[in-house]
Write a structure and sequence with these properties.
Chain lengths: 620, 458
């Protein structure tokens, strides 16, 4: 057995969206870090759709950026369309989505990793974990090389025992065309982790030369787009359109006639798929009265003719895929370049994790991304970032960063996973966040950059931008509060009603229909603020009342979150709990009374008993 | 746990009849609430309450009229049972006055205490020592078991199903709204204002109906107040005695010999009844009749059922007719007394549509008829047709919260300018109200729930 001389602080297994963030965060926090990939040409691969963000996911990306993560920057640099969704609704639910050039995204990510000081990249498959008395001490690769490490982060995505289905044919694989990871899954089972099986899928990719675009609806991006990263000022690549078309009864007939050849409908697939992202087979069967389903055609990049047919994810046999695609307007002559497929993979029950993403069984071992039962690049990256941060903090002997539900979507995501576990691939939605009005895209920097600075992940340019923005917003708010409408007869802005003299500009801005721009136009000479700060000030002022209302709920929430349950708390010694509740508490080991109350099946009664016992402990 | 802001209140004496009943408040707003509802004997609010000193005065309702004559004490933190500011209001015993004072306190912003919450506060604030703490633990744990039974009794039954159904509808409404937020690019039906509006208003209407059953439910559980009215010397006191089956009131032929309003408690086949005899008119002769009417009015306000006593041996008097005019047919019973003497009028001829019974109080005749008439009228009037009633003030408060939020949602819908994420806020808060009843709240108010059937305000 060959031992590599190098001893690493942090080892990251896998270089997908979680792995990249984990590796970069650790290296940026001065950890001697190595990242392993089965194939280093697919570092940062977007294996599913070529898009980043979208509802609630856009929030996650902005949060990753605010903490000093990479996804936002890479998405901005590779973006070929940017669009903020939900603009007709309030700013809390505005969400940015971008289309990326898949190749540019991957290259930017790989280059970033390669140029990160303190980070090594290795193409080896990790097959075994080295564990010493419950503490991780290193990893062993398929080449028989052993690497010592203080912390190990596993971000293997769909690669654990990955099985790809196209029709009734199936083949082991982590992604189409790539080998799965088999040894590691067995290793995890033997360490006592509960391994389950999930399923996800992708649609076929179509050659644009075979698409009749004249029959499609154009979906263009925003003309003055928002960016994910505070470091970005605008798109750098040429911008492209997406297109929309629809399935029809004929499509549905083709699918129905071939269900016996669908691995989903003849029992070949046992993993549980996401309800929010069903295959076209599922849509047709479950919503049989719907006459059509949308199909979005998204360009995969600037230098490729591949289009991603979003909406018809399928695992039907290739010939059925061809006829179903060709039944769709605009795609009558479509040529499929890569078929759609379903993939089954192992995941580890995230209840086995602490809120830091460290496993409860093995100290120093962290899991992040799809291995924890999530779906989506953004969900994976969020966890990767937090695992990278917490592994580094652990090595430094510091307390982990645990974001609260009232503080970040990332907090909601991880709290849900470690408290409730998941039965299907977990995806973020804004409705999962109780404090949605507070967790906005526009204030992600304000909520999270201070954490980033504190833990040493944010510095240099990003830190400067943060303080500048903070200063500008503060100055602008003061200006608005202190400047009063002086004109004797009052002022008429865009709206009909007269603004009474003596009102502050702050009050004026609160009125519906009046924007920062209106105020600036009138007071041009006096106001000099960046677009970024003005946008944020306007939202802050207009949303103020609603946010104040939500903050009351946040206060109540925090009072329970701040009641910390010690890790060594002995639930067996607590009388008055039902066995079921006791088992759940023992399994989850909640960090706070608040978290205990969110465990399914833990009654408010049980929480009260817990609270009393905790108070007693405090007294004696 | 909301109590860092909340002021809690509850009746802290045992339920049932007693000379005095104490309402206890704990929390920052206790004194402010007391100030706003307490008038000194001079009829004006009292500016300064010295800590731990008893004050005599009245609790007044919104319109400024007195509800009850009370002794009140303010105890400044931390030398109190809960280590918070505490106020105690010593009222007359008996549920109706107490309930009214409690309601007034709640209207001023206090939250009903969960049973056992005062003790819990005392414990959490370090007021109770080890032994006492252990005792509290024991009771709480016993309670866990007991509350499971009572929960299955109460909430597994009709009420649980009704509220559960409300909750499902509310969840559904919320889910529909959320769809518009989280899936803007999906092909979902256009936002259907009318459907949201109709669903919300019909739900609000049903919740309101359920809230209204509170008083009725309470009457069946805690008993009804029955007022006995009638002009002097028709035999009200004799009637009272007949029902009490003992010589409690002084019975003479001289009108107005009953000294004060007399209140007595009887049980009519298990239904607790509180009898109020309104006599005791000591005004000069020419004022007596109108004073009688005034007193009768007062008594009728408090009562769930009014017994108008008429002397069947005498022709109907003007003041009899005056009192008859006061009656509301649904809550009145006419008692024709002195049927041992020859009758001087017939009710049938007077064209009255009221239920009546004939008795001879002096000879103790007709008691059974009278009792059964009283019982059936109260039960008929206070049972709802579909049978779901709420009896706990905690349920009422929670439902009211839900209702208010639902109305806020409806208002928001009507304004047509509220974005869905704001409308959703109202629906989620409405849900929280129902969560409080069904006990499935996760993060909010968790400390409170199990203590609900604990001894109130120790």
């Amino acid at each position: 057995m060959y031992f590599c001389d190098l001893e690493y602080d942090v080892v990251v297994i896998g270089a997908g969206h979680a792995g990249c963030e984990a590796a970069l965060a650790a290296a940026r926090m001065d950890m001697k870090t190595v990242v392993f990939s089965i194939n280093i040409d697919s570092i940062g691969q977007m294996s599913c759709n070529p898009a980043i963000g979208g509802l609630a996911k856009g929030h996650l990306v902005k949060e990753i950026d605010a903490l000093g993560g990479q996804m936002g920057i890479t998405a901005d640099l590779s973006g070929i369309q940017f669009k903020t969704l939900n603009m007709s609704k309030g700013p809390a639910v505005w969400s940015l989505r971008s289309q990326s050039d898949r190749v540019v995204y991957k290259n930017v990510m790989k280059t970033t990793l390669e140029n990160q000081p303190g980070l090594d990249i290795k193409q080896e498959e990790v097959v075994n974990l080295l564990i010493d008395k419950g503490v991780v001490s290193g990893v062993e690769s398929n080449l028989g090389v052993r690497y010592r490490a203080k912390a190990v982060i596993i971000t293997t995505g769909t690669f654990l025992n990955g099985l790809i289905h196209i029709g009734l044919k199936n083949m082991p694989g982590g992604r189409a065309g790539e080998f799965p990871s088999v040894g590691l899954s067995e290793c995890l089972s033997s360490l006592g982790f509960k391994v389950g099986r999930l399923k996800t899928g992708t649609p076929p990719r179509i050659d644009s030369k075979s698409i009749d675009f004249s029959q499609l609806e154009v979906q263009s991006g925003d003309s003055e787009p928002d960016m994910f990263s505070l470091l970005s000022s605008g798109p750098v690549l040429p911008q492209l359109n997406c297109y929309r078309t629809y399935t029809n009864e004929q499509t549905h007939e083709i699918i129905r006639a071939n269900l016996d050849r669908s691995p989903l409908y003849c029992g070949k697939i046992n993993g549980i798929g996401p309800r929010y992202c069903p295959s076209i087979e599922d849509k047709v069967v479950r919503f049989s009265d719907k006459p059509r389903h949308q199909v979005f055609l998204e360009p995969e990049g600037l230098d490729t003719t591949e289009y991603y047919a979003n909406g018809i994810s399928t695992s039907l046999p290739f010939d059925v895929q061809v006829s179903l695609v060709q039944s769709i307007p605009g795609l009558q002559k479509a040529k499929i370049m890569r078929p759609g497929y379903a993939i089954e993979y192992d995941f580890v029950d995230p209840i086995g994790l602490k809120p830091s993403l460290e496993t409860k069984n093995v100290s120093g071992l962290y899991f992040a991304g799809q291995i924890n039962g999530t779906s989506g690049y953004e969900e994976a990256a969020s966890q990767g970032l937090i695992a990278g941060i917490n592994a580094s903090l652990m090595v430094k002997g510091m307390k982990p960063l645990v974001l609260k539900r009232s503080e970040a979507y990332i907090g909601v995501l991880i709290d849900d996973l470690v408290t409730r576990g998941t039965e299907e691939p977990y995806r973020m939605f804004t409705s999962r966040a109780e404090y949605r009005l507070v967790l906005r895209q526009d204030n992600a920097w304000e909520r999270l950059t201070p954490h980033g600075i504190r833990i040493g992940l944010v510095s240099g340019e990003r830190e400067k931008i943060y303080y500048n923005l903070l200063g500008e917003v503060d100055t602008a708010l003061k200006y608005l509060k202190n400047t009063r409408v002086t004109t004797k007869e009052g002022v008429r802005f865009v709206t009909e009603d007269l603004i009474q003299p003596g009102s502050s500009l702050h009050q004026v801005l609160k009125r519906p229909g009046i924007t920062m721009r209106d105020i600036i136009e009138r007071y041009q000479s006096e106001l000099k603020f960046s677009r970024e700060s003005m946008k944020r000030v306007e939202i802050k002022v207009k949303y103020e009342g609603y946010v104040a209302r939500q903050m009351q709920a946040v206060d109540r929430f925090n009072s329970m979150e701040h009641k910390i349950i010690p890790e060594d708390f002995d639930y067996s010694a607590l009388s008055g709990l039902s066995n079921e509740v006791r088992d759940k508490l023992k399994k989850v080991k909640p960090r706070s009374i608040g978290q205990a109350g969110r465990i399914p099946g833990v009654t408010p009664a049980a929480v009260s008993i817990l609270l009393i016992a905790l108070e007693k402990r405090r007294f004696f | 746990m909301q109590r860092h802001n909340d002021t809690i209140a509850a009746i802290s004496t045992a339920p049932g009849e007693s000379a005095i009943g104490i309402i206890k408040l704990s929390g920052k707003r206790s004194l402010a609430i007391l100030r706003s509802i307490f008038h000194s004997p001079s009829g004006s609010p009292l500016k300064r309450f010295r800590s731990h000193q008893l004050y005599y005065g009245h609790i007044i309702d919104e319109s400024g009229s007195p509800i009850d004559e009370v002794l009140a004490v303010y105890m400044r933190a931390p030398k109190t049972y809960t280590r918070e500011d505490v106020v105690e209001i010593h009222c007359h015993g008996g549920t109706s006055a107490l309930q009214q004072v409690l309601q007034t306190v709640l209207d001023r912003g206090a939250r009903p205490a969960e049973p056992g919450e005062f003790t819990l506060l005392a414990f959490l604030n370090g007021r109770i020592d080890l032994t006492q703490a252990e005792a509290v633990m024991d009771v709480i744990q016993a309670k866990t078991h007991r509350s499971l039974i009572s929960a299955s009794d109460q909430l597994g039954g009709r009420l649980g199903r009704t509220i559960g159904e409300f909750k499902n509808r509310l969840i559904r409404l919320t889910a529909h709204l959320e769809t518009y937020i989280d899936f803007p690019e999906e092909e979902i039906p256009r936002f259907d204002f009318e459907s949201f509006y109709n669903q919300a208003t019909s739900l609000a209407c049903e919740i309101e109906t359920l809230i209204e059953t509170y008083n009725k439910g309470r009457i069946l559980r805690e008993g009804a107040t029955v007022a006995i009215i009638g002009r002097p010397n028709v035999g009200k006191s004799s009637l009272l005695n007949m029902l009490l089956a003992e010589e409690r009131a002084i019975v003479t032929d001289i009108p107005g010999t009953t000294r004060d309003t007399i209140e007595e408690n009887i049980s009519v086949d298990g239904l607790p009844i509180r009898l109020i005899d309104t006599a005791g008119i000591r005004q000069s002769h020419n004022l007596a009749e109108s004073e009688g009417v005034r007193r009768s009015r007062e008594a009728m306000k408090k009562a769930e059922l009014v017994l108008l006593v008429l002397d069947k041996s005498m022709p109907l008097h003007n003041s009899d007719l005056e009192l008859l005019d006061l009656l509301n047919s649904s809550k009145a019973l006419i008692v024709l007394n002195k049927t041992d003497l020859p009758g001087a009028f017939s009710l049938a001829c007077s064209g009255l549509q009221l239920t009546h019974v004939e008795v001879s109080a002096l000879h103790n005749k007709g008691t059974a008829d009278l009792k059964s008439a009283i019982r059936s009228l109260i039960i008929k009037e206070n049972s709802t047709t579909e049978g779901t009633t709420i009896t706990r003030i905690r349920h009422k408060t929670s439902l009211k919260k839900t209702l208010q939020c639902l109305y806020a949602f409806i208002d928001g819908l009507k304004q047509d300018s509220e974005p869905p994420e704001i409308l959703s806020l109202d629906l989620r808060e409405a849900l929280e109200g129902l969560d409080n009843i069904l006990g499935v709240t996760t993060a909010d108010d968790i400390l409170n729930v199990i203590f609900k059937d604990f001894c109130i305000g120790k």
